[in-house]
Amino acid sequence: MILTTLEGVPGKEIIEHYGIVQGSTVRAKNIGKDFLAGMKNIVGGELKGYTELLHEARQEALDRMIQQGQQLGANAIINVRFATSSVAQGAAELFAYGTAVRVS
Q1: Sheet of 91-103: strands edge to edge?
Q2: Sequence-separated (6 or more) residues with CB below 8 Å from residue 14
Q3: How confident is the model at residue 30 (pLDDT cuts 50, 70, 90)?
Q4: Domain locations along the chain
């Protein structure tokens, strides 16, 4: 599956348009990671636990979006974007979306 943030795939022609596809995941913070993050805030530096959590969430949302595109018969998803929203205290949704197409 070709993924791009562009409006098309360079060197390819869009021959079929399937519409919007999406994938999302909702993740909650971990109490242990929150404690370690609080300690890290005192001395500064990267919050590696949260970095890993966000990386996993982005990948899961992308995988779900790709799966939806494959079910439609797409071989590319263009205009890929990410969005986040808070759904509850300590929990957030990471949302990936784009336009499923077939290119040749």
Answers
A1: 2-3, 76-88, 91-103, 14-28
A2: 8, 78, 101, 102, 103
A3: low
A4: 2-27+58-103
Give the global pTM: 0.85
Give me 9's structure tokens: 């795939």
Close Cβ partners of 100 (under 8 Å, ≥ 6 residues apart): 17, 18, 19, 20, 21, 68, 69, 72, 74, 76, 77
Asked if residue 33 lies in contact with residue 50, where contact means CB atoms within 8 angstroms, the answer is yes
CATH no. for 2-27+58-103: 3.30.110.70
Strand partners, 25: 94
CB-based contact 14:103 (threshold 8 Å): yes
Residues 9 and 102: their CA atoms lie apart, in Å, by 10
